[in-house]
């Protein structure tokens, strides 16, 4: 992938931080024993640094005073290999500053001096027309005067350059600027400020996107903090979950996301999911380090994190395969065998097929999903129609999560109704999982609810009004996911102090609900893969 030519038009601030024991009362003088610390900041500078560290050919158009703070910032920009030929210097204003006082309890007070940032004019931008015209994309934020952004975006549009607007901090934006914007990247608060629509779930995110599309914007990306990010184009949309990490300081996380995304996104947006995953990884690294610009990772660190997760996934797959082989070795001859759904069950299907072929076993099988059915048929296994049998001897299936009581959640692979049907017919249910699936409790876990298409919105509103944080499940291409039985899935979050039995009953009584993913009292034996396979028997637990 060729490096993207990115021009960032935006703000530069220097944060002046003073740590104090307590705040002085009016007229009071207090001694302090800490030095004032100076840190680089400003949304424009943050985004430019993030893009540069992710390999983009980055030019920064910003306005600085002729002072020591400007010298410090310029030196940092150059260390990050940014093109600073278009940084504008002025004698009329000082470099932008934020004066921050933090007391022992962590409370802070902040005074912002816009300085040279607020002096950036359309004429300043027009003077650097050549840099804008030669870019692949131009990024701007709202910490500089809007007329300067409009001037930059007009030049970009005249030259076929893609424009990205980060509407932060939140404020009203003139229609002229929105019409010049190709991609807009608000967080949930900023989106609501601009559209008047509250962001609560994926449906409301899509409603927001439709409002932006009406303004001529071609892509909407809404970030929702540690939950992840949502993208929408007129052709597709999807929610990309964030990576779960322990956050130390969220400063610059959003700016890191935007700069990293811009560095990776192809101009035709064809790799939007991959670029957003990359940006999510970048942000996840940023929040694990205190500070702003010092916390923004470079491309090597981001790729190392991606590689680490890929390696971890390889270990998970090995654990799944180990559990599957262990289960397959214990299956008796002359039975009707239920074959579960998902990747873990696919390992089991292949393992039991090897035994059937090698030992000439007489085992007839029933599949719980279309994918498993097709796999078993390719292997020429003996398959039965579930409508022609009364019982299943053993069913081996995976689980999305299982608690210490061997209650679990299943159905994440969109075969929920069939899975529960076969499980209820089985004399014995064996679950095979990797080591990430067992949890102490199901509270806080994602639970799929299968709903009929023409009743889906009614169920969605019921779940939303009762605090379950519902979200429709979508395919990778942005289409709504359809289960094997032709229904939709709504994911909800199991709340704290939930009575699982009551929740299961309440869901089944709701008109429009076909099935839910709570499997209570169904698992008879849990097999956990690993170098040392562990087995938990319900009768002995």
UniProtKB/TrEMBL annotation:
Protein name: Ribokinase
Top-level taxon of the source organism: Bacteria
Annotated function: Catalyzes the phosphorylation of ribose at O-5 in a reaction requiring ATP and magnesium. The resulting D-ribose-5-phosphate can then be used either for sythesis of nucleotides, histidine, and tryptophan, or as a component of the pentose phosphate pathway.
Sequence positions that bind substrate: 13-15, 42-46, 143, 255
The record's free-text note on cofactor binding: Requires a divalent cation, most likely magnesium in vivo, as an electrophilic catalyst to aid phosphoryl group transfer. It is the chelate of the metal and the nucleotide that is the actual substrate.
InterPro entries: Carboh/pur_kinase_PfkB_CS (IPR002173), NagB/RpiA_transferase-like (IPR037171), PfkB_dom (IPR011611), Ribo/fructo_kinase (IPR002139), Ribokinase (IPR011877), Ribokinase-like (IPR029056), Ribose5P_isomerase_type_A (IPR004788)
Subcellular location: Cytoplasm
Named cofactor requirement(s): Mg(2+)
Stored HAMAP family: Ribokinase
Lineage per the UniProt record: Bacteria, Bacillati, Bacillota, Bacilli, Lactobacillales
Catalytic activity: D-ribose + ATP = D-ribose 5-phosphate + ADP + H(+)
Organism this protein belongs to: Fructilactobacillus florum 8D
Stored Pfam families: PfkB, Rib_5-P_isom_A
Oligomer status and interactors: Homodimer.
């Amino acid at each position: 992938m060729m490096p993207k030519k990115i021009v960032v038009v935006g703000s530069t601030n220097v944060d002046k931080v003073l740590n104090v024991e307590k705040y002085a009362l009016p007229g009071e003088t207090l001694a302090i024993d800490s030095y004032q610390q100076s840190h680089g900041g400003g949304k424009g500078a943050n985004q430019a640094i993030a893009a540069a560290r992710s390999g983009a050919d980055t030019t920064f158009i910003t306005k600085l005073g002729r002072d020591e703070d400007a010298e410090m910032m310029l030196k940092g920009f150059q260390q990050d290999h940014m093109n600073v030929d278009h940084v504008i210097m002025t004698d009329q204003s000082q470099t932008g500053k934020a004066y921050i006082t933090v007391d022992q309890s962590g409370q802070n007070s902040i005074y912002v001096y816009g300085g040279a940032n607020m002096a950036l004019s359309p004429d300043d931008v027009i003077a650097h027309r050549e840099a804008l015209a030669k870019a692949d994309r131009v990024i701007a934020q709202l910490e500089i005067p809007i007329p300067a952004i409009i001037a930059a975006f007009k030049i970009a549009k005249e030259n076929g350059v893609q424009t990205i607007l980060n509407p932060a901090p939140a404020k009203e934006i003139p229609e002229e600027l929105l019409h010049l914007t190709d991609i807009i990247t608000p967080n949930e608060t900023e989106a609501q400020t601009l559209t008047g629509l509250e962001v609560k779930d994926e449906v409301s995110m899509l409603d927001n996107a439709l409002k932006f599309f009406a303004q001529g914007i071609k892509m909407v990306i809404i970030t929702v903090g540690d939950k992840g990010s949502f993208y929408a184009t007129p052709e597709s949309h999807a929610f990309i979950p964030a990576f779960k990490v322990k956050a130390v300081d969220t400063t610059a996380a959003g700016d890191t996301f935007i700069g990293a995304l811009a560095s990776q996104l192809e101009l035709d947006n064809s790799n939007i999911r991959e670029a957003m995953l990359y940006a999510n990884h970048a942000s996840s690294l940023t929040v694990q380090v205190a500070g702003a610009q010092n916390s923004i990772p470079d491309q090597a660190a981001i790729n190392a994190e991606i590689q680490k997760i890929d390696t971890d996934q390889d270990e998970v797959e090995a654990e799944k395969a180990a559990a599957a082989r262990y289960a397959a070795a214990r299956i008796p001859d002359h039975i009707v065998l239920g074959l579960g759904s998902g990747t873990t069950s696919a390992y089991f299907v292949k393992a039991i097929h090897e035994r059937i072929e090698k030992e000439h076993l007489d085992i007839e099988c029933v599949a719980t999903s279309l994918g498993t059915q097709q796999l078993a048929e390719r292997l020429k296994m003996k398959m039965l129609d579930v409508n022609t049998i009364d019982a299943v001897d053993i069913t081996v299936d995976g689980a999305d999560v299982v608690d210490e009581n061997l209650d679990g959640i299943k159905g994440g692979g969109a075969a929920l109704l069939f899975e529960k049907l076969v499980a209820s017919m089985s004399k014995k249910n064996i679950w095979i999982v990797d080591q990430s699936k067992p949890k102490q409790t199901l509270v806080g876990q994602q639970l799929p609810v299968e709903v009929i298409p023409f009743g889906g919105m009614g169920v969605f509103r019921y779940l939303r009004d009762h605090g379950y944080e519902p979200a429709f499940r979508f395919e990778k291409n942005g289409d709504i996911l359809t289960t094997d039985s032709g229904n939709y899935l709504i994911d909800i979050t199991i709340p704290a102090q939930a009575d699982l039995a009551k929740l299961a009953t309440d869901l089944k009584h709701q008109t429009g609900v076909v099935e839910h993913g709570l499997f209570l009292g169904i698992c008879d034996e849990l097999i956990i893969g690993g170098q040392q396979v562990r087995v938990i028997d319900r009768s002995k637990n």
